[in-house]
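Supplementary Methods, section 5.1.

A reviewer requested that the exact input to the structure prediction be made available. We therefore reproduce it here, unchanged from the version used in the analyses.
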Amino acid sequence: MASLFTNPAIIPVSQLTSTNPTRFLLYYNGTTATKAPSIRSTKSSTPFTTIFCSATRRPEYIPNRIPDPHYVRVFDTTLRDGEQSPGASMTSKEKLDVARQLAKLGVDIIEAGFPAASKDDLEAVRMIAKEVGNEVDENGYVPVICGLARCNKKDIDASWEAVKHAKRPRIHTFIATSEIHMKHKLKKTKEEVIETARSMVSYARSLGCNDVEFSPEDAGRSDREFLYQILGEVIKAGATTLNIPDTVGYNMPNEFGQLIADIKANTKGIENVIISTHCQNDLGLSTANTLAGACAGARQVEVTVNGIGERAGNAALEEVVMALKCRGDQVLGGLYTGINTKQIIMSSKMVEEFSGLHVQPHKAIVGENAFAHESGIHQDTGSNDDSINSSALLPLQLGYDIDSKDLDDLFWRFKAVAEKKKNITDDDVMALVSDVVFQPQVVWKLGDVQVTCGTLGLPMATVRLIDANGEEHIACANGTGPIDSAYKAVLLIVKVDVTLLEYSMNAVTEGIDALATTRVLIRGENNHISTRSSGQSGEILHRTFRCDNCQNLHGTGAGVDIVVSSVRAFVNALNKMLGFNNQAGAKSNTRNSRVSP
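The structure derived from this sequence is encoded token-by-token as follows.
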């Protein structure tokens, strides 16, 4: 990677001495009031700065063929396999928002869900197909919208019903092929499995879908000769992509690469389809296995943002893409993708917020310790509204898509913080923007909160909430402290039965005037799904298996005042719970069977 360091203005992170590393690739290029933040290469940037900002190219989309043999399609399954992470789920609106962001990122295929799981899942995939699947950009790019289906007509019908509205629909169907799965899960012979796979791929094509992907589940532990045979049969039946999964994360990179090479060399008709990889991370080798598969001839990689997924997760999109970006020309045979790498950070942040699955600090590419720079926004915040407005626009430099109302809210939130803090950093701004951009659907909005506490009297809180109709509600309560009192006052207004399971607070920056982010986990006792909500603004995750008769949700809030931050987090979690109840009936019976090619 020596070529990355030829620019004297760019030095490796290991040589930096900054005491406040962050992952945001930005720099405020002056202290004058009229200058806006900008992205540029400085001594505090990392080698990836210019890589993240480079252009991409993309060949014409043909289901079973790629005109450029060096191009690797990116199949994102964050909304399907990623949502199978323990405790992770998203509302339909959040799925749509993520799908739109994935389109900005430039993924070739979005696996939007498992339509047969429930009516709500089908509707979510259909909504993505209608909206995101028909938004063609000026270069003719539009993502393929894919739905997962087991090898049966009911699943395939549901998948087609959901994705057929997209400009480029795909059905992804699968069946287990390892000896242990066929014997103990399917209770089928090899001949029966081949016939099921062949007939269901043929059925999917008969519906009018000319883009059908087939996965032999647990291919990594399947008999090779049987794999060649079943893959040859589904090719004859009309499959356009063959996905080879290491379902249990069992393979070593050399093994998985050889598996792809052997399939390419021994499967009849393989020249007429695309070979794909899908690698789980149980042994921490998903990225390595995916790259090994690509080097061996696979031209589609199945990945998730932040590597989320069931058990130990999947190959991380950002790791695979940046490995190809950094080393593709040098050691990976010139392989490349069409990903707009400038959108990686935003995509990571959105998935982190909506899923509630926090990115570990040392996570490659998107972890907060992965990049470092000198903090670039250090201004006297009480002097000039123009300078405040300039800093408030910082998230736009990173690709945040903020509408005018949210931008106005962000500006006034920023100004309020600026009146209390001497120095505003980019971390402060990003905490605030997360609190605005990733808000749950507003059922209740915090108006005011006032508390009294200390050693001389009984703690007391007064809270004013505003409902969806704009009506104000005020309640007072006492408790063991200011937070307990405020939460009890909120519950007097909202009138729901919840239990606070977890409460934590962190300072965004150093100093006694630091912005605080509060994170809470609540449980609704009278519900039948388990969910959580997290992030700077509030996000949700939902799993039926975590709790048979409760609902767990995370909420977060940001602010200089720790009481206000705490109440905002609590209200966000309640909003998540109340909003998610609209989908509870549909969701309560889903996830009874795991779907993992």
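The first helix runs from residue 48 to 52. These observations are discussed further in the main text.
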